[in-house]
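note to self: dont lose this again. the chain is below, predicted strucutre after it. 81 aa total, dont forget to put it in the shared folder this time
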Amino acid sequence: MIGLSSPILKKPALVLIEISEGKNTLTKLWKSSVSSFTWLERIVKKFEELGLVKREKVSRDKIITLTEDGKELAELFKKLI
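---
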């Protein structure tokens, strides 16, 4: 069984936590991450499809915010990690 200590699951969990802590653009996430920009783009798109985040274009940036489900999941991950 793959646990949360697995990098396969831990990286997306950390991205949700970072969004909850105010890193609300892909650029901000990328600068604080060891992940590629392309991977971050894909995972945020997947989060959006799952209803965990919303992206809204503000001037040249796309601001990422957590939905209620995303907030709950981020809080759960904070307790587990």
